[in-house]
Amino acid sequence: MGDGEGEAIRAIGARNGAAPSKRPSLTALELASGVPLGEQPDALPLPLIDPALQARVALEDAIRPALACGRCVVGFSGGRDSSALLALAVHVARRDGLPLPVPASLRYRDLPEADESEWQELVIRHLGLADWVRLDISDDVDYLGPVAQSVLARHGVLWPAYFYSYRPLMAQATDGVFMTGIDGDGLFGGWRWGGLGPLRRRPGRPLAVDILRLSIAYAPEQARRVAARRHRLSFSWLTPAALAELNAGWFVHYAQEPVRWDRRVAWWSRLRGLALAVSSLDVLGSDCGAAVANPLLDRRFLAALAAQGGSSGCGDRTAIMQGLFADLLPAEVVSRPTKAAFGGGWWGDASKAFAAGWDGSGVDETLVDVAELRAEWTTARPTLRTIGLLQHAWLSGAETSQVRERGEEGIPVVDNRKGGP
């Protein structure tokens, strides 16, 4: 890698503002519940920017260093966020004379609800890309399959628990950059108070439910904590004491989400769950010799997006996507209301076999009700929130030493085909 490419790599590292100063670890309650709450203490604030800076321009600036590295692989599921980032990266590369990004996709052909082939091919055709890495997946990315086992043996349980599945894609970006669209859902569509602006401006007498929402939103934080009790969490596999502790944190988290869009974007950027996710991606990228770029977390972009929306925001998720990407993608992709469901592909034979023979060890019984957790794992598709416990229980078993001895063996790349659809 040349000096220019190395400088681009360093620029990418500086832009990943959600990355904590050191790798955070899951607490016992976070592992048991699958729910990180609150803010990461060492998360960086959003910077002061020129008020005239447009969010689209800032996002292009965040993408450019990844393209300048020579090989930029975009994790491309076919969903809205990955499609938008791929399209914008292609646009910047062609405009600025940089190498085109390479989309890389996992293909779940035996799992209809996770098969994004048609959406993927629509985007690739629209962008006119000839180079596309597709990996056909079966049981390879099972929660306890060979990819997961190798990652678990090296790093322990990651959060979210399915992030090990990025590993085969990241292997395509060795000595380059792997680009993600991490948590576009949370940024563009997760604002709890996003519908309040239209309520304030709607003519006529407000409905009772509108009055209730507005009164909760603008109440003091302590009152909002009380109101949050209407939305308490209920996880059957947690002990009563653990569930009470979790809900105490959840009520605070709920109450602290800002009502203003600009403050909410800044708050979202500091969330502990986001820091854990970025850390997970970074360790996976390091394994593969790839830098990881998360343009949607670029602090300059977030500051511009916050300023652009001001107090009331930029509309719902679709409106924000249209404002940023409408000129780059087919309209049906930008406004797509559906999402793929991958859980069935990850809960495969290896996970089912381990769960069926599980002896109850490897979990903290002050936090976890073993009988209820076992019952959850007998369902057709257990909640993702329990998968960290599944992996932690597996790690506690003797078979883990065999995986460590194998090292990286057993990590398959089933099919590495290139070319357009």
SSE arrangement, N to C: HHHEHEHEHHEHHHHHHHEHHHHHHHH
Net shape:
globular
Radius of gyration: 22 Å
Helix content: 40-55%
> pLDDT average, as an integer?
87
**CATH level 1 class label of the largest domain:** Alpha Beta
User: Helix/strand/pairing class, anyone?
Assistant: mainly alpha
Please supply descriptive tags for the structure shown above.
2 domains; 49% helix; mainly alpha; 5 strands; 421 residues; five-stranded parallel beta sheet; Rossmann fold; globular
Word description of this protein:
The chain contains 22 helices and five strands. By secondary structure, the chain is mainly α. The chain has two domains: 255 residues, 3-Layer(aba) Sandwich (Rossmann fold); 61 residues, no CATH class. It has a five-stranded parallel sheet. The longest helix has 17 residues.
